[in-house]
Amino acid sequence: MQDDYMKTPFDEMDLDYFQKPEIPGLHAGSMSEAQKSKDHYKKDGHTHGHLGATTCQDGHVHMHPGVTSTPIENEQGHFHHMKGNTSFDDGHIHQYETYTSLPIQLPGGYHTHYVEISTTEDDGHIHVIKGFTQPSKS
Ligand SMILES: [Fe+2]
Ligand SMILES: [Fe+2]
Predict the structure, then answer these.
(1) Contact criterion met (CB below 8 Å) for 117 and 18
(2) Is residue 14 one of the residues assigned to a domain?
(3) Cα-flanking dihedrals φ and ψ of residue 12, to 5°?
(4) Domain-embedded: residue 17
(5) If you measure from the C-alpha of residue 55 to the centroid of ligand 1, how many angstroms do you get, rounded to a whole number?
(6) Number of domains composing the chain
(7) Residue 37 pLDDT > 60
(8) Whole-angstrom distance, CA of residue 39 vs CA of residue 6
(9) Alpha-carbon gap, residue 115 to 93, rounded angstroms
(10) Which domain holds residue 119?
(11) Structure confidence at residue 21 as a pLDDT band (50, 70, 90)
(12) 5 belongs to a structural domain
């Protein structure tokens, strides 16, 4: 965990529920291993948009607009694969790849997922992406 990113209200929450789901044979955060899980995707189903800014490092932030994969199911529920490049700022981009949390129910039949990712190191630093995906119905 980095010590130079801004604390958010989520740092004070019990995040057990938000932890990345257990995926057999998958080492959390490993991009090459993450590739292997693509076989588990449903061919159809809902996705979630995500957008926002990374934490600030080295005097700049990057944006991370994108869309998650379709659902991946396990015994506890579903989650999504999320992968992309950040925007180009301060002369470079970063890459990120992770799995979302399990669903977090919202009013009206919608749900969201929590995500916390460290980007790749580029130009001598990494950024952190923390937040919730845009709501979607299952
Ligand atoms: Fe950067
Ligand atoms: Fe979902």
Answers:
(1) no
(2) no
(3) -95, -10
(4) no
(5) 9
(6) 1
(7) no
(8) 36
(9) 20
(10) 31-137
(11) low
(12) no
Cα dihedral 119, 35, 21, 77 sign = positive
Output the pLDDT for position 130. Answer: 96
User: Model's pTM, two decimal places?
Assistant: 0.74
Ligand nearest to the CA of 46: 2
Q: Is there a domain that residue 12 lies in?
A: no
Residue 131 has pLDDT above 70, yes or no: yes
Q: Which pLDDT score is estimated for 2?
A: 46
- Rounded to 5°, the CA angle 104-22-14 comes to 45
Share of the chain above pLDDT 90, in %: 65
C-alpha 8 – ligand 1 centre gap (Å): 20
Q: Which of 15-19, 33-37, 73-77 has the highest mean pLDDT?
A: 73-77
The structure tokens listed for 78 are: 């579903």
Tell how far the Cα of 136 is from the centroid of ligand 2, in angstroms.
6
CA of 127 to the centre of ligand 1 (A): 6
Q: How far apart are CA 58 and CA 90, in angstroms?
A: 9
